[in-house]
Amino acid sequence: MENPIVLITGALTGIGRAAALAFAKDGARVVISGRRDEAGQKLLAELRHTGVEAEFWRADVRHEEDVRDFVDKTVARFGRLDVAVNNAGTEGKPGSVTEQTAESYAATFDTNVLGTLLSMKHELRVMLPQRHGSIVNISSTYGHLGGAGASLYAASKHAVEGLTRSAALEAAEFGVRVNVVAPGPIDTALLNRFTGTAERKADLVAGVPLQRMGRPEEIAQLIVFLASDKASFSTGATFAADGGKTAR
Fold this sequence. Notes:
By secondary structure, the protein is of the alpha/beta class. About 50% of the residues lie in helices and about 15% in strands. It has a single domain, classed as Rossmann fold (3-Layer(aba) Sandwich). It contains 9 helices and 7 strands, in the order E-H-E-H-E-H-E-H-E-H-H-E-H-H-H-E.
């Protein structure tokens, strides 16, 4: 579809930001959301400077009223919703299972799982009657490999992949596709927070067969492809971009 309407959650940094710029480069009209007004306005100006139509709406995906509002504003502004990228996420509290609490569970799952669920709920509310649309959720290789010290993060991303497959089966008859991208270690602020130290970061990268971190822009290109008609026969699938980690 030419000049699609694209909505991206968690768009202000990392993979979300790279995806917004990549879609804009392809001529899409881009709606970005996030929790920080200053960063949102800065990215909005950058997107508009490329010549595309763009909007920023402050939203917290943990709150259904925020999600409903930014989806409704998108449709009111552009008339439809063609693509949604659900990127909002948190690394949670790294540590073993025995270190986790009900509070750390809620802090991780409210953003990563509930946020994805609410986003898809309202995106599909628009896409199903349209009988077209593409949703790309963001998981992680931890979502299917697991990992010591990443108990809640891994569990939340496993849940995102389950939600993706269920939504894909429910939406298929309406012509709406739902897929998930599972990145390996990507050079983002989230990875820095997750690893905590340069030594732990280096250890994580050492387990990547390509012997390097990925770049947000590399993940963005995969997202743009999956959202496009070039991937029109793909739905309910997990696409790894992990430098070969899952090949081992």
